[in-house]
Prior knowledge:
Elements: H1 3-25, E1 31-35, H2 42-58, E2 62-66, H3 73-80, E3 88-92, H4 94-103, E4 115-124, E5 126-131, H5 139-148, E6 154-157, H6 163-175, E7 180-183, H7 187-195, E8 201-205, H8 206-214, E9 218-223, E10 251-256, H9 261-275, H10 278-286, E11 289-293, H11 296-317
Parallel strand pairs: 1-2, 1-3, 6-7
Antiparallel strand pairs: 3-10, 4-10, 4-11, 5-8, 5-9
Amino acid sequence: MNTMLIRTAAAVAGTLCVAAASAQSFPSKPIRIIVPYVGGGAVDGSARVVAAPMSEAMGQPVLVENRPGASSMVGMQACAKSPADGYTTCMTVADSLSYNPFLFKNLPYDPDKDFAPVINLLRGNSMLFAKGNAPFNNFKEMIAYAKSRPGTLNWGTWGPASVPDMYLQWIKHEVGVNIAAVPYKGAGQAVPAVLAGEVDISYMVIGAILPHIKAGKLKPLAVVGGRRSPLLPDLPHLAEEGADPGLRSYFGIFAPGGTPKPIVDRLNAEFAKALQLPKVQEFFRTQALDIVGGSADEFARFLREDRVNSGRVFKTMGVKPGDAPT
């Protein structure tokens, strides 16, 4: 073996030893979970539910930090630019890494290089809903109303390229209706806007708005995805209505790219343990969020497949990437 190979092997071994030692002493200070949305939404609430037991189990505070703005880019950039030492993570949904790469030309982060997938925490069961006094009672009636009165309805999104915005754009493309998008910084603002009558329609995980539906303050229109929800078994899903784009849902945890694998694996294990706690499982059950879990490598494979699927949807809609919002 030549000298160069020996030196390279020694350097690699040394790096692995340092990473393993760091993982054994990890954590020695607080960990933060950046949420790139405003407080009060499903992602924020889910992050806080798992952060509490993780703080106790790891012996260090696990803090949730909301960094909304620019279609989740503000928070995701903050996560990407943080030291790759495991003390900063971020929790996001599909818009940040599955949608934004196809929608914006000048992302402030590289979706492949700047993030290390940690764990696919949850799969969302969401729905489209309307304000309680809307002049329609289901998805078909909403479409008929929108066609008969073009431009009179508006749809609260979490900003351009957010998950609810993508559903609006697909429905407009497939069904041919004129519904205006009204951007908010997250579900924590969009849902109150529908309750107040500022906008007519929006999108949210079922559990978070079910009390408002039972109280008659909101009207359910359709479940998002290819199956009905056990919480609302009589409510059709968008595939039944012929308006489902086939986008997949996930609530994922990421670390900055380059975070050592032993630390990623430790974070994965700690998040997975939190998901097994009965009180955590009960919370997600009431929110109609399905626990996924699995390894970091499994999540990485899922993300690659999801980005391909998302690109196919946007190509069908004829979406062309534009400048990223600031």
